[in-house]
Design brief:
heterodimer; A: 593 residues; Clc chloride channel; CBS-domain; three-stranded mixed sheet; two-stranded antiparallel ribbon; 4% strand; B: 366 residues; mainly alpha; 18 helices; 80% helix; 0% strand
Chain lengths: 593, 366
């Protein structure tokens, strides 16, 4: 069944299917990974999983160092107080911006941006190749930028660093191009899991946003890498969830309406945030290149100015999220913090300062959620929970609306807080925000950024939403009933004379199907006596069968070498639902386009 | 090679993490100390900023979280404090300190039932330092809370528990328990507690005064007089002296006192009738003076008529012979005192004493 001439598209954008995970040819094995495999007497599949664990260990430790580096730099530059001295607030982000811009422009150009699209590009454009220099650059520039107070987070850079480490290990082990492509998302999951201390969310994010498939083998490696990196992270930095919140209880079903309102507001604000970035980023990138040396510094200065009044809007902002979750701010303050963070994050990001969007997105979501909760609590104290649960739900809601990863966002809230009880409002609110964002903003943020960078990366969201053609969309009713294997050859010949079908299907009592060309039947009859049964006269070859719900793409693989295939019921393969030929498939594709 | 790199990275990460944790712990201690200093200096607003800084470096540090919540409570930021306290409570539901803070927070947020729930949690909870004393203090606080929220019945049960646990030799605790009983409307039990306190220190003026007050409320004026007179001798004050005079008036004018002969009863009844009639006349005059028609109020007229009728029928000698007449005279005295205190304002001096005599002996005959 294998296709000797695979379509060009497949070689350019390989799908990460289970089959593609099987390890390389013997030749490749001899050169590198294979010889190692023989040495430790493990199967190739198991060795790949072992490699995933090693990637997880490396990524976990690098992310731990990265987090510590950010904190050391923050302590050194801004100080240990949550409300730092004014001079430092004003000057440090700008000064750091100058250094970061110099490093990026001179040494680490690939370190620019958040890291998510760069990882996708590695998978889909660069055959899984992420230069190790990018890992170093990302580590240095992001830790300086975030530590100095630029409004960016460490998660997306960790994801890219994980992919870079995986890629470097893969190259070191001389893995093939296919394997290198697979390793990048494995490393990405490891990096993200360690950064968030949330392995489930990391796995889901990589599947939702980077590879877009639930292939069992890929999942195994990704999960192992994420788990091992999270274990490393926890053993060094502690196993507590990122935020500690009191258990939430739904006081009244009407509260869910209040969360629905939060979903609407978050959806609208995520559109606005996306629009700001989509508008400003290309404008700044279109400026002369020498300005790239100054843009992060200018952004830093503006952030410093905002920080003089609102220091919470600087840096990744985790302590302030924690405070919002603990009802520490009135709703008016929360609203101001949310909008201030949108401003500072937009400035940092569009100026090309390396750093991630996850933490600021959580921050904005928490503040907006808290503000909506506070407002609703003010007007409807009998049905609304306090600010804390709204801030908690808001984190996931804005994440779902802005980054368009609805499943990840739900699990992320649960994992980062250790609170499962909040899941119901989170699901409602996230879904609304996601649907609003999707309805009014055709392209998701990361896809938009990729387009701005002239990268044609596959949109996982579009893939999810793509209409899938199934066998039932192309099959037709057979023009004549199938022959039975127990029919005599003479009887079959009579039926064939009345049928217009070129291929006649023959049904065996066991559910097996065979095909015989109408034109071949007379010859067959001449070779055997008339009373010979079809099952005795027909060759033993059997036809593959299809089911109505199978994807038409799959049917293409099976139909090769056959003019007609039976489509049978899943309730019993003797029941013929229809027939399918190659022209039927092509007609269906033509109709769909 | 990869394994060597892994080992090397592990060593670097471990060193970095250890150094960073040490720095974090240092920062927690530094900010915690600063917060405590600010808190002690009466600056809860500054203190909670310090504790917040400390908590950002030690998010698992429950001591810091508790102090942060307490600083927020002290700064009047009850909703903010609540979230941290609930968080702590979920991790340590048996902590007396957390329960007590939650009780305070609930009380401030006007959630009575929840406050009581947490007070009880604090009583049953664990305490690091001197648990017996801590629990007793919480119970006192709970009693005060219940009394201030007009939940005397609930309070009485708690105070009874408190009294049962009070060590016999601890006068101060007996005195405090007595005070609670007094507030809860149980002067008899209060008197027992004050007397228990006085057994440890019979000359303690405040306890004597409180015992006198309890005895006075019970209606045991002999005891009240005894305690008030002791205080009046030891530590005289206007209030105590006034109370002493009042109980002496009661004791000196009460014809129903056990052990009095017919003659003394008659003398007291006759004198009380005279005092009541004087009060009636003064009251009628005062009302008449202040009214435009210069007429005494009509409510007092029947009493005046009854008094004149009684005066025609009885005298000191007839009262000495007839218990019935003494009773009739005292009933009129009580009616006059009741009516005049309603019309002309609260009775004072001996008239107040007559009202107390009425309440003490309602329904009994001399």
């Amino acid at each position: 069944m294998s296709d000797p001439n695979p379509p060009i598209a497949e070689t350019q954008t390989p799908s990460l299917s289970a089959g593609s995970l099987a390890l390389e040819s013997k030749e490749a094995g001899r050169e590198g990974f294979g010889s190692w495999a023989r040495l430790v007497t493990l199967s190739e599949g198991n060795l790949f999983l072992l490699l995933a664990v090693i990637i997880g260990l490396f990524s976990g430790m690098v992310v731990v160092c990265f987090r510590i580096a950010i904190e050391w730099i923050r302590l050194g530059l801004v100080g240990s107080a949550l409300a730092p001295p004014a001079v430092r607030v004003l000057l440090m982000p700008a000064a750091a911006g100058l250094i970061v811009a110099f490093l990026v422009q001179r040494f680490f150009r690939a370190a620019r941006g958040s890291g998510v699209n760069q990882t996708k590009a590695a998978v889909y454009v660069f055959d899984g190749y992420v230069p190790f220099r990018t890992v170093i650059g990302k580590f240095l520039t992001c830790s300086i930028a975030i530590g100095s107070g630029h409004s960016l987070g460490p998660e997306d850079p960790s994801l890219q660093m994980g992919a870079g480490i995986a890629s470097a290990l893969g190259r070191r082990l001389k893995l093939s191009r296919d394997k290198l492509r697979l390793l990048a998302p494995v490393g990405a999951a490891a990096g993200l899991a360690a950064a968030f201390n949330a392995p489930i969310s990391a796995v889901l994010f990589v599947i939702e946003e980077v590879i877009g498939t639930w292939s069992a083998s890929a999942l195994g490696a990704i999960v192992l890498a994420a788990v091992s990196s999270a274990v490393v992270m926890r053993s060094f930095l502690g196993g507590e969830p990122m935020f500690r919140v009191p258990t939430y209880t739904l006081a009244h079903p009407a509260e869910l309406l209040a969360y629905a309102v939060l979903g609407v507001v978050s959806g609208v604000l995520s559109l606005a945030f996306t629009a700001i970035i989509a508008y400003l980023r290309p404008k700044l990138r279109a400026l002369p290149e020498w300005t790239f040396y100054l843009q992060p510094a200018a952004a830093g200065l503006l952030i410093g100015l905002v920080g003089l009044r609102i220091p919470q809007a600087m840096g990744a902002g985790y302590p302030y999220i924690d405070q919002a979750l603990h009802n520490q701010y009135a709703w008016e303050i929360l609203a101001i913090l949310g909008f201030a963070k949108i401003l500072t994050t937009s400035l940092s990001f569009v100026s090309g300062t390396p750093g991630g969007m996850f933490a600021p997105t959580l921050f904005i979501g928490a503040m907006i959620g808290g503000a909506i909760g506070g407002l609703e609590h003010h007007f409807f104290p009998q049905v609304s929970a306090s600010v804390g649960p709204f801030a908690l739900v808001g984190m996931g809601t804005f994440f779902a609306g802005f980054l368009r990863v609805p499943i990840t966002s739900v699990f992320m809230v649960v994992e980062t807080t250790g609170s499962y009880s909040i899941v119901l409002p989170v699901m409602i609110s996230n879904t609304i925000a996601y649907l609003i964002s999707r309805k009014y903003q055709d392209t998701a943020l990361f896809d938009l950024l990729a387009k701005q960078d002239d990268l044609e990366l596959p949109s996982m969201e579009e893939q999810r939403e793509q209409i899938v053609l199934r066998v039932e969309d192309a099959m037709r009713r057979p023009e004549s009933p199938p022959l039975q294997a127990s029919d005599a050859l003479a009887h079959a010949l009579e039926i064939a004379q009345t049928s217009t079908e070129e291929i006649l299907l023959v049904r065996f009592p066991t559910g097996r199907w065979a095909g015989v060309a109408r034109k071949d039947l007379p010859a067959l009859a001449s070779q055997h006596p008339g009373e010979t049964l079809l099952r005795e006269a027909l060759p033993t070859a059997r036809l593959p069968v299809l089911h109505p719900d199978q994807r038409l793409d799959d049917a293409l693989r099976f139909i090769q070498g056959h003019e007609l295939l039976p489509v049978v019921s899943r309730a019993g393969s003797r029941k013929l639902e229809g027939v399918l030929s190659l022209p039927d498939i092509l007609t269906a594709y033509q109709r769909a386009t | 090679m990869s394994l060597i790199l892994l080992a090397l990275l592990f060593a670097v990460t471990a060193t970095l993490a250890r150094t960073y944790h040490a720095r974090e712990e240092g920062l927690v201690a530094e900010w915690f100390q600063q917060g405590n200093a600010d808190f002690a200096a009466g600056k809860p607003g500054k203190a909670f900023e310090d504790f917040r800084n400390a908590l950002s470096y030690g998010p698992d540090n429950q001591q810091v979280e508790l102090r942060l919540a307490e600083a927020l409570l002290a700064d009047g930021r009850f909703t903010e404090a609540r979230s941290y306290l609930v968080n702590l409570w979920e991790r340590a539901p048996g902590s007396g300190e957390v329960n007590l803070d939650l009780a305070h927070d609930s009380a401030e947020l006007r959630d009575e039932d929840e406050a009581i729930h947490y007070f009880r949690g604090a009583i049953l909870g664990s305490w690091d330092k001197d648990p017996a004393l801590a629990r007793r203090n919480v119970r006192f606080e709970l009693c005060e809370f219940l009394l201030s929220h007009n939940r005397a019945n609930d309070a009485q049960a708690e105070i009874a528990g408190l009294a049962a646990d009070t060590p016999a030799g601890d006068g101060l605790l007996h005195e405090e328990t007595g005070g609670l009983f007094l507030k809860a409307g149980e002067p008899g039990k209060a008197l027992s507690e004050f007397e228990a306190a006085l057994r440890t220190n019979p000359r303690q003026s405040q306890w004597l005064a409180e015992a006198g007050q309890a005895a006075y409320q019970v209606g045991d004026y002999l005891k009240a007089e005894m305690y008030f007179s002791k205080v009046d001798r030891e530590n005289p004050s206007k209030e105590i002296h006034a109370s002493l005079v009042l109980v002496r008036d009661v004791l000196g004018n009460d014809p129903f006192l056990v052990g009095l002969g017919d003659e003394e009863q008659a003398r007291r009844s006759w004198r009380d009738l005279g005092l009541a009639l004087a009060r009636l006349r003064n009251c009628a005059q005062a009302i008449a003076d202040n009214s435009p028609s210069k007429q005494p109020p009509s409510d007092l007229q029947p009493l005046n008529n009854d008094a004149q009728d009684l005066q025609k029928r009885v005298n000191l000698r007839s009262l000495g012979k007839s218990a019935e007449e003494r009773s009739e005279a005292m009933q009129l005295v009580f009616r006059i005192e009741d009516a005049t205190s309603q019309i002309c304002g609260p009775a004072a001096g001996v008239d107040q004493a007559l009202l107390l005599i009425e309440r003490r002996h309602e329904g009994s005959t001399p």
